[in-house]
């Protein structure tokens, strides 16, 4: 089975090796972590991707690294 996406991979790792847990056991704290992950994916990932693509456009030779 091929997994894609950091959150999907983290959930699978948590299933395979539950200790130490990657997410808190407390439901409220767990929900806060999941909300923060969603926000990070929605708000921060696009910024990071744009920065990487801009850097690669200006220095295409860095692509293999």
Topology, element by element:
Layout: H1 6-16, H2 27-58
Identify the notable features of this structure and list them briefly.
65 residues; mainly alpha; 2 helices; 66% helix
- Terminal CA distance: 27 Å
Shape: elongated
Question: Describe the biggest sheet?
Answer: none
Number of helix segments?
2
Helical coverage, percent range:
55-70%
Percent of sequence in beta strands: under 5%
* CA-atom Rg in angstroms: 16 Å
SS class: mainly alpha
Q: Write down how many β-strands occur, each being a DSSP E stretch of 2 or more residues.
A: 0
**Spans of at least 5 consecutive residues with low confidence:** none
Write down the overall mean pLDDT: 90
Order of helices and strands: HH
Structure description:
- The protein is mostly helical and 65 residues long.
- The chain has a domain at 25-65.
- The protein is built from 2 helices and no strands.
- The protein has helices at residues 6-16, 27-58.
- It is elongated.
- The chain starts with 5 loop residues before the first helix and ends in a 7-residue tail after the last helix.
- The model has no long low-confidence stretch (mean pLDDT 90).
């Amino acid at each position: 089975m091929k997994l894609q996406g950091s959150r999907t991979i983290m959930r699978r790792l948590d299933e395979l090796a539950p200790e130490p847990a990657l997410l808190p056991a407390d439901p409220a704290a767990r929900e806060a972590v999941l909300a923060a992950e969603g926000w990070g994916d929605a708000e921060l990932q696009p910024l990071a991707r744009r920065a990487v693509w801009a850097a690669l456009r200006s220095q295409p030779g860095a692509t293999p690294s």
